[in-house]
């Protein structure tokens, strides 16, 4: 059984699942221990590589969770190996809430959502931060693609477990980049049609001029 299920389905959660009649549905049957992290497959790696943003949750000393958005070009969240993801963290609003929370508790949750493909992936992990100057090889690996800005730290997340979430109720939305890629063939066809229309207009003008010349010649004769 998945490591994610063992972490997410606490006794209270299991109690509610049984109350609602979903306690034995699919992967919720926790019959075997899951002591090892869930390995990422090529499917998860491809999904992560196509994302330009995700939500990162951490917990502070008060016990309150904090959710932060991280964005960048597709692929800025790198899959280092089957158990690790990482990204170059650039300077933002300088509140450093997530960074401070990680000093007390390294547990994080990631919510990765792809509106265009109506898919989402949930992930648990342990996050550590590294100084780019003290980890030059990792910094180079995460350099491209990465978010524009001054890199303050490298965030490495050891993945404990993950689960694909139901796509129901995800509203399909498309970024400017995705729309540009999808509309590129149409725009090319429109540009070609406009060019053909201009050439047709020029031909009609030339034909009209030739007809006038021919009429003039006939009148002279």
Automatic annotation (TrEMBL):
Ranges of biased composition (kind: Basic and acidic residues): 29-38
Pyridoxamine 5'-phosphate oxidase N-terminal domain boundaries: 45-141
Coiled coil: 186-220
Domain of life: Bacteria
One Pfam family here: PNPOx_N
Name recorded for this polypeptide: Pyridoxamine 5-phosphate oxidase
Keyword Coiled coil: yes
Keywords: Coiled coil
Organism of this sequence: Streptomyces triticagri
Renumbered residue ranges of the record's region Disordered: 16-38
């Amino acid at each position: 059984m998945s490591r994610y299920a063992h972490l997410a389905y606490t006794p209270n959660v299991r109690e509610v699942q049984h109350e609602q009649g979903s306690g034995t549905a699919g992967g919720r049957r926790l019959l075997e221990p899951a002591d090892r992290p869930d390995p990422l497959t090529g499917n998860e790696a491809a999904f992560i590589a196509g994302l330009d943003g995700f939500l990162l949750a951490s917990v502070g000393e008060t016990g309150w969770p904090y959710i932060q958005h991280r964005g960048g070009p597709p692929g800025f969240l790198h899959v280092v190996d089957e158990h690790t993801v990482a990204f170059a963290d650039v300077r933002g609003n300088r509140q450093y809430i997530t960074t401070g929370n990680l000093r007390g508790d390294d547990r994080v949750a990631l919510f990765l959502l792809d509106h265009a493909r109506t898919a989402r992936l949930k992930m648990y992990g342990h996050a550590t931060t590294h100084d780019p100057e003290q980890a030059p090889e990792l910094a180079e690996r995460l350099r491209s693609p990465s978010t524009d800005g001054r890199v303050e730290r490298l965030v490495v997340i050891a993945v404990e477990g993950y689960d694909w979430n139901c796509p129901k109720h995800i509203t399909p939305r498309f970024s400017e980049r995705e729309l540009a890629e999808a509309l590129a063939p149409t725009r090319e066809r429109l540009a070609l049609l406009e060019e053909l229309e201009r050439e047709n207009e020029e031909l009609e003008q030339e034909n009209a001029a030739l007809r006038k010349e021919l009429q003039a010649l006939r009148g002279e004769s």
